[in-house]
DNA sequence: ATCCTCCCCTAC
DNA sequence: TAAGGTAGGGGAGGAT
């Protein structure tokens, strides 16, 4: 709990959650489309000889016109055909679309269709001819659509940055050399040898994650451990001595207990600071003796990042406004014109602090504003780990059916324990809490329920330092008034969608049928929601299964300037992953690289010191020939993947490497060398009665070599991982003056890019797969288990696998090979002139072009001139294949490629896509959608177009053509900025 | 139907 | 200053 804000962090742009919200709206629209289609019946043959193609915004919308054509015997061309389309329907005719039409193409306003139907005859087109550049501002959208989108965008309010602040921030003139200020470095050099360990040493989320993994391993190792359960034994004694112990459960009733430490980090921290008990305290990296505000760093734009928080909280939610922990909408009282509140996060705050509105994950600056008396204390990770170890030692002495939820939290299935002892569940909880208090000095709270969900919700009621039980019979009443967000597994996006459906509380959610929920959320999720809101949860308490992935990410402090630095960083990160694979005793076969890239419209300097700021992410992965733990192999792939992404180095803000398709190093059935040693081995014994009955030493494992068979073929794929959904065009959502500044910033960025010429480039990159012909063999295991050092130090250490080594250095040293990959950097851009695409761009998931446009327009001054009773109308958005949404247009692209994959693409179709995308750029300013459509197109081409003959070549050409055409418009509109686009191989 | 890939979402 | 990691559940949609 309290976890509301913490993952605002990851999406400080607010898009991730916007995604679900937007998606909900899109679904609604799609539904309306469907209904409309269902009603289509031919009522006349009025347009027998007419074939229309709708371009741009129209009223009625393209889909509605499509229906009308169907009803009146006409044809509707999703794609413009210069030979068979008789009429192009459009409300205006910007240069962008006019130039792609055949000469003398009739372009008429949509009213021509409507009026002709009214008159039941085809009217002359003259009065409806659209003049080039004529823009009809009096468009009206049709019923359902405008209301839907109009309602929805009221949540997206204008972020009213104060002009003076923003302009100061963005003013480049004040900061003569942005690049220098960046690399010279207040931010520690990303390439320092100790960067990774320094970062992880301080990252609470890293610890949280690794501890959970270790604890899950530990718990798993207990399953077959037939040692005594001291806690259980004590309860049995209790039950013998007391006749009152006859608690029973219904035949199939379970008894689940959830135990969670109170404000864990703070509680542990206060053990050594008893004088602070009773005062509001928070754990943060922000030094306690420095002010909660810092001097504004030049080049940053706190408002820019804060605006995302604003958007987030504008969306409907069952939460109070307060729950957005990092809503910084109210200007910090303590900040003055040249200071900004600290962006350091609070990992945990105690209940005294929470009464002032503080939440875990909140920024310290904001917290200090809410609670001026707040006392900051530093992290003490060793102490947390120690407390965690004690907690789990206690828990596992009661039952082996426990599930590690986190370092301060676990689920216990105490059904058997209750049945055996007859002890009241609440008594068990009291015992456990008491022992936790004794051993750790910290308070734990507990929840008891007939299932996991109710137990967890009960815990929240019990907190702090308490417990609560919800019985089967109380469940319905207990859950009724809870906001849906309180249901475990229902987060921000899901809650928003539910609220859209009218279900803010569980009681309201109960009124929605399973069928509707399943349709809306999918089968499993729909059923889960249906059950959860009734207090039903069938999940069992289980120890986690085999790990499916091992990864290392750093999305903080990444400020690189040269390709060598990137290369070095990737090697270091690969070594980290290699280490983790070794520790997990697995080998991996698929490498995935994830990068966060500064969005072109985000300031070069992030508001949060070292933060990733407003970014989009890209991932690209490659299936290796064989399983590996070799850091050189991983690094080589990572570099190769990075190269293929052509990322502008200075815009990198986050990098991650993930290994999947794991295979255990151990033979089946062999006991793993669990990390329990770390948790239990050194656990100090207390009294016999309170000592967890786990014999650590008995749970050891021998490494066993495993043959690795090479079966899979190497393959590369691209993941378009939308880290965030964003429903409004960034630029458009801003007031004009601020947008101009942003555009200036774009220019500056472009200029910087030209200066540095530091893109990764793929021009020299050659697939490494061919060199990977040998296999890991049994020898690899031995090497692996002995190679405790970093893999990258291999030059001085035994090779993990001589065969791997041999292959990776086949053409010289690995380093040399890597170096060669980057040899041409710097000039490649000029060489590859036709494609000026440097990067993929936007992420967004703006899944509803029309709505976005509408939101956009709402924020534009000119629309303030509309009549008062007229809400801003949504002009018909650009459409592709009749689709007006991002997902719809991507679908259209998919269909197109799928249909035509057997042959070369037709120019008409290509033009259609070009027109659509250009309109998105020129009219909607929806670069996110453009980017997504291009990504889809690229991926479809790569995956489904036949590789035989020249067909693939023509598709690649088509892609490049489309990209170039789009870039033309982007450059025109954004002063020579080039849209980042994933290059086609 | 079921599996696979590429995502989104959630939790601490 | 600040340390925004990481793994799993599952849905959409295509392949089999
Ligand atoms: N955004 C967050 C949330 C949690 N944590 C860490 C610090 C917490 O102390 C610990 C446990 O998380 P909980 O959700 O259990 O929160 P607390 O234990 O702090 O408070 P409580 O459980 O009493 O609500 O995880 C964190 O670093 N960042
Ligand atoms: Mg807790
Ligand atoms: Mg917890």
TrEMBL record:
Residues 787-806 have a biased composition (Basic residues). GO terms for molecular function: damaged DNA binding; deoxycytidyl transferase activity; DNA-directed DNA polymerase activity; metal ion binding. One of its GO terms (cellular component) is nucleus. CDD domains: BRCT_Rev1, PolY_Rev1. It is found in: Nucleus. Residues 325-340 have a biased composition (Low complexity). Its EC number is 2.7.7.-. Residues 146-155, 176-189, 755-778 have a biased composition (Polar residues). Its cofactor is Mg(2+). Residues 42-130 form the BRCT domain. It comes from the Eukaryota. PROSITE patterns: BRCT, UMUC. Residues 146-189, 284-341, 677-730, 754-815, 859-890 are annotated as: Disordered. Residues 165-175, 298-308, 707-723 have a biased composition (Basic and acidic residues). The keyword DNA damage applies. GO terms for biological process: DNA repair; error-free translesion synthesis; error-prone translesion synthesis. It holds the Pfam family IMS. Belongs to the DNA polymerase type-Y family. This is DNA repair protein REV1. It comes from Phallusia mammillata. The gene is Rev1.
């Amino acid at each position: 709990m309290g976890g509301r804000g913490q993952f605002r962090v990851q999406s400080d742009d607010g898009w991730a959650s916007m995604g679900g919200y937007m998606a909900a709206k899109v679904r609604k629209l799609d539904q309306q489309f469907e209904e409309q289609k269902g009603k289509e019946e031919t009522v006349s043959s009025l347009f027998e000889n007419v074939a229309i193609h709708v371009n741009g915004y129209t009223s009625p919308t393209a889909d509605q016109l499509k229906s009308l054509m169907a009803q009146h015997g006409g044809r509707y061309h999703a794609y413009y055909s210069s030979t068979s389309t008789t009429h192009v329907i459009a409300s205006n005719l910007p240069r962008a679309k006019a130039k792609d039409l055949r000469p003398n193409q009739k372009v008429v306003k949509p009213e021509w269709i409507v009026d002709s139907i009214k008159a039941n005859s085809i009217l002359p087109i003259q009065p409806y001819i659209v003049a080039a550049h004529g823009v009809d501002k009096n468009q009206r959208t049709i019923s359902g659509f405008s209301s839907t989108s109009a309602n929805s965008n009221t949540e997206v309010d204008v972020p009213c940055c104060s002009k003076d602040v923003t302009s100061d921030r963005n003013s480049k003139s004040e900061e003569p050399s942005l690049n220098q200020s960046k690399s010279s470095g207040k931010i520690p050099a990303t390439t320092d040898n100790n960067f990774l360990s320094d970062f992880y040493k301080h990252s609470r989320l890293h610890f949280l994650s690794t501890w959970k993994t270790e604890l899950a391993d530990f718990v798993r190792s207990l399953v077959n451990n037939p040692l005594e359960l001291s806690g259980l034994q004590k309860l049995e004694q209790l039950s013998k001595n007391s006749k009152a112990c006859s608690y029973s459960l219904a035949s199939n009733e379970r008894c689940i207990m959830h135990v969670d430490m109170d404000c864990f980090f703070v509680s542990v921290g206060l053990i050594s600071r008893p004088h602070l008990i009773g005062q509001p305290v928070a754990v943060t990296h922000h030094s306690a003796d420095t002010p909660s505000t810092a001097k504004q760093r030049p080049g940053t734009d706190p408002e820019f990042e804060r605006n995302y928080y604003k958007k987030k909280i504008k969306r409907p939610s069952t939460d109070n406004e307060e729950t957005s922990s990092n809503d910084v909408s109210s200007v910090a009282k303590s900040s003055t014109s040249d200071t900004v509140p600290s962006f350091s996060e609070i990992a945990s705050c105690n209940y005294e602090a929470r009464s002032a509105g503080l939440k875990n994950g909140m920024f310290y600056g904001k917290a200090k504003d809410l609670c001026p008396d707040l006392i900051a204390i530093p992290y003490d990770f060793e102490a947390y780990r120690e407390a965690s170890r004690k907690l789990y030692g206690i828990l596992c002495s009661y039952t082996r059916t426990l599930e590690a939820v986190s370092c301060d939290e676990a689920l216990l299935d105490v059904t058997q324990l209750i049945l055996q002892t007859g002890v009241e569940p609440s008594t068990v909880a009291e015992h456990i809490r008491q022992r936790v208090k004794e051993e750790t000095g910290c308070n734990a709270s507990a929840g008891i329920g007939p299932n996991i969900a109710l137990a967890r919700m009960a815990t929240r009621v019990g907190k702090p330092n308490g417990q609560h039980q919800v019985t089967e019979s109380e469940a319905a009443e207990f859950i009724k008034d809870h906001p849906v967000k309180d249901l475990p597994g229902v987060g921000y996006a899901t809650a928003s969608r539910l609220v859209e459906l009218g279900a803010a509380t569980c009681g309201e959610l109960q009124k929605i049928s399973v069928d509707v929920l399943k349709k809306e959320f999918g089968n499993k999720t729909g059923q889960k929601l249906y059950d959860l809101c009734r207090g039903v949860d069938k999940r069992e308490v289980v120890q986690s299964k085999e790990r499916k992935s091992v990864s290392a990410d750093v999305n903080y402090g990444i400020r690189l300037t040269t390709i060598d630095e990137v290369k070095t960083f990737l090697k270091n990160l690969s070594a980290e992953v290699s280490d983790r694979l070794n520790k997990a005793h697995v080998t991996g076969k698929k490498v995935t690289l994830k990068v966060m890239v500064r969005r072109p419209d985000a300031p070069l300097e992030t508001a949060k010191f070292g933060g990733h700021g407003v970014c989009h992410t890209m991932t690209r992965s490659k299936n290796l020939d064989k399983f590996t733990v070799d850091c050189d192999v991983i690094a080589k792939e990572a570099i190769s993947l990075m190269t293929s992404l052509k990322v502008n180095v200075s815009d990198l803000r986050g990098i991650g490497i993930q290994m999947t398709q794991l295979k255990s190093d151990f033979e089946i059935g062999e006991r793993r060398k669990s990390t329990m040693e770390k948790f239990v081995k050194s656990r100090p014994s207390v009294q016999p009665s309170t000592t967890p009955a786990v014999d650590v030493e008995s749970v050891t494992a021998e490494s066993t070599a495993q043959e690795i068979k090479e079966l899979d073929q190497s393959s590369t794929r691209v993941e378009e991982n939308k880290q965030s959904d964003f429903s409004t065009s960034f630029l458009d959502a801003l007031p004009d003056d601020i947008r101009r500044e942003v555009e200036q910033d774009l220019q500056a960025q472009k200029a910087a890019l030209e200066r540095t010429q530091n893109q990764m480039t793929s021009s020299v990159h050659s697939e490494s797969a061919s060199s990977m012909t040998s296999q890991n063999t049994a020898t690899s295991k031995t090497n692996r288990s002995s190679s405790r050092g970093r893999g990258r130090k291999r030059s001085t250490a035994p090779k993990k696998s001589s065969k791997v080594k041999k292959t990776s250095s086949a053409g010289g040293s690995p380093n040399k090979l890597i170096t060669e990959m980057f040899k041409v950097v710097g000039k490649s851009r000029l060489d590859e002139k036709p494609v000026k695409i440097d990067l993929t761009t936007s992420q967004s998931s703006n899944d509803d072009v029309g709505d976005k446009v509408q939101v956009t327009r709402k924020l534009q001054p000119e629309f303030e001139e509309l009549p008062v009773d007229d809400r801003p109308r949504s002009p018909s958005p650009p459409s592709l294949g009749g689709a007006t949404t991002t997902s719809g247009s991507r679908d259209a692209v998919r269909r197109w490629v799928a249909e035509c994959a057997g042959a070369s693409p037709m120019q008409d179709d290509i033009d259609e896509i070009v027109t659509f995308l250009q309109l998105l750029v020129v009219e909607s300013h929806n670069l996110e959608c453009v980017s997504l459509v291009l990504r889809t197109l690229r991926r479809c081409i790569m995956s489904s177009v036949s590789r035989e003959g020249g067909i693939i070549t023509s598709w690649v050409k088509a892609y490049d053509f489309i990209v170039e055409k789009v870039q033309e418009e982007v450059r025109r509109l954004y002063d020579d900025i080039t849209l980042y686009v994933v290059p086609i191989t």
